[in-house]
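**Paired protein data**
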Amino acid sequence: MRGTAFSLAIAALLVGLAAAAPAAAQEPVTFEARDGAELSGHLFRPEGPGRHPAVVMMHGCGGILDGKGRIRARDLEWAERFRAAGFVVLIADSFTRRGVATVCTTRDSPITPRRRAGDAAAAAEFLAARKDVDHRRIGLVGWSHGGSTVLHAVLHSKPEGFDYRVVVAFYPGCRGFLNGDRSPRRPVTVLHGTEDDWTPIEPCRALAEKHDAITMIELPGAHHGFDTPDAPLRTLQAAYSKDGSGNVTFGTHEPSRRRAIAITMRILDTMKPRTR
């Protein structure tokens, strides 16, 4: 009960902060993807003048918008958390302008994590061109399908003229990377729940053992989506599952959620200039 109350309180606080923020702090934007498509995004801007560090966020297989056309709770909470900490944030929407709502239940979608790595690079280039962003301090964070996108991004699609300063992947699918010979060009931190039956942790463990550039953070007892605010555990249908049935488990694990927030913010804080 205490964990649930804590989660509700934090979620309510962040929603209140988002509502209280100036309208100019959030705005819809468009940018051109590497494949020529025009993509939409949601830009969050911190208060204060000068050039800020920035974060590109890559959403999961369900897209950035819920059934009512609102930014999903997990993505909105993270974006507002990053913004409140002084980062310019761009949630890159790989789906909406391509006419796709979700790829969670299909195995043959053309919008693959490798393709979306180009979206991430284009989003970073969009941010780097802004006068309020320091192009030397841009991070990349992704969740699930977006986490796999992050791994592809440090293998294949580098932004032009610079590279990501920090890279974080939440519960990515790692199996497809095990047979490749290429090493990530940037260090990557992977946060993964030990009980994840959607994108199982075992391939990510093996990948981290193979590449020194990958730091594996295991979160005992956590399922897929453990950092989603106030999401009771439930069973969903997906294209892939650990046991092959298509039944997967999704929901909050509050201890892991709090730990993941602390770790991620500590990583992003390394992009901030040091003060004497």
